[in-house]
Design goal:
The structure is a homodimer. Chain A has helices at about 1-10, 15-30, 40-45, 50-55, 60-75, 85-105, 105-115, 120-135, 145-170, 175-190, 200-210, 215-230. By secondary structure, chain A is mainly α. The longest helix of chain A has 26 residues, at about 145-170. The structure holds a DNA duplex (19 and 19 nucleotides). Chains A, B: InterPro entries: Homeodomain-like_sf, HTH-type_TetR-like_transc_reg, HTH_TetR, Repressor_TetR_C, Tet_transcr_reg_TetR-rel_C_sf.
DNA sequence: ACCTGAACACCGTTCAAGT
DNA sequence: ACCTGAACACCGTTCAAGT
């Protein structure tokens, strides 16, 4: 009887923090940051606005929680049992983050915000820890740990954010036509720039159209790893 | 008489696009992106909401225009008559952008957005052109122009964005006390992390507290330039 | 403890109307 | 051409009230 009473009390809680965050991520994925409104969320969850504030707090806190959830999942996916070379581990972590931002375009802006606003939060600290351990494993002298790790992390976040747009346009279009069209349009716009003012951008318009996102991302990482190797 | 008539007609235009953008930048500097509301702007300019839309368009377009104005000024400041070494020019451009984001913290998020949303806009193209010319001058083979330039640009934007928070806290506090306190708080939080889960972050907490933003920013650039030098 | 939903103080944007 | 400002359709957040 006590059990029954407890159950009926428990059954009243139909919402959980996790459920709310999951629905928020769906809204963000579908329509970007603007699509996450408290009202859209309550409608999807068939509840009232107060329930959101009871379980997670303000909209900003919900945005933080969504970011933490997605990044934690992306980092957790990289727990290789065999211990690979540090360079491979860095590349793999970078590609995990690359993939996460490609799937969740809203992360690009949100990560910038989190790094600035919450430097001791789980997102900032989680990414630093993962990359930093590999920097240490590379044999970088301790005095350069912070600097070398920061450089890698900054590059990864910056690079990955710009590639989002390309990835986004690739989605929803059959056979990558959307992506090709988008890159073609950008390349054409670059080609049409004033020849005196923008000779360099005009010169690389072709490379920009033909480039492979992941390949170029990895070549940037390779370049930085080369620089780090010289610190040893 | 015709002059007088013309003058009276002209005098009716009391607002200009430039004026609106300048006021918008002031609001953004004072209170961040949230402080730029159409109503706050019309109040400061003693006008109606319609006037904003007549001269510049929507709030998003105003945000774009503000970003373009600040970045154009930052890039224009770097027109050295003597032609310095490419490495120096890259460092100088990077520091110009560093300074611009330090003064206008809202740029951090806004630049990410612009690069993704308007890859052929003046901001994206202007930064690429400035950095790219120096990459070319470094003797990098043409096949690597786009890749090397992208790596530098991504690092600069990523790194500069994270340092904003530190710079911001330095402002308004006498004798840099705010910045030191902020860094001390972050370092303390890093130090308090779980020893098993975050050994690396705990190990670099001290370096993080002592680090000099500009120095570290430049050492990241030096690291990438080292990597680029090996492409030659 | 958990949730509802009306109410409040804001938003961005439009557009008929004025000069 | 340039500008006004009421009106509209939204926001995020709070909080008394319910169970």
């Amino acid at each position: 009887m006590t059990t029954r009473a407890r159950q009926s009390v428990r059954r009243r809680q139909v919402l959980s923090r996790e459920q709310i965050i999951a629905s928020a991520i769906e809204l963000l994925d579908d329509g970007g940051e603007g699509a996450l409104t408290v009202r859209a969320l309550t409608e999807r969850l068939a509840t009232g606005t107060g329930a959101i504030y009871y379980h997670v707090g303000t909209r900003d806190e919900l945005l933080d929680a969504a970011t933490e959830t997605v990044i934690a999942a992306a980092l957790a996916a990289r727990t290789d049992p065999a211990s690979p070379a540090p360079e491979d581990e860095i590349r793999a972590t970078a590609l995990s983050l690359f993939g996460a931002i490609a799937e969740h375009a809203w992360l690009a802006t949100q990560l910038t915000t989190q790094f600035a606003r919450r430097p001791s939060g789980p997102v900032t600290v989680g990414i630093f820890e993962r990359i930093g351990r590999q920097v240490r494993a590379l044999g970088v002298p301790q005095a350069a740990w912070f600097s070398a790790t920061s450089t890698l992390v900054h590059y990864i976040l910056g690079a990955v954010s710009q590639h989002v747009r390309f990835e986004r346009d690739a989605h929803g279009a059959p056979g990558d036509v959307g992506r090709e069209k988008f890159l073609g349009d950008v390349a054409a716009a670059w080609q049409d720039l004033d020849a005196d003012a923008y000779p360099f951008v005009r010169a690389i318009a072709g490379q920009m159209r033909e480039h492979d996102d992941r390949e170029q991302f990895l070549s940037g990482i390779a370049l930085i790893l080369d620089g780090i190797a010289r610190l040893r």
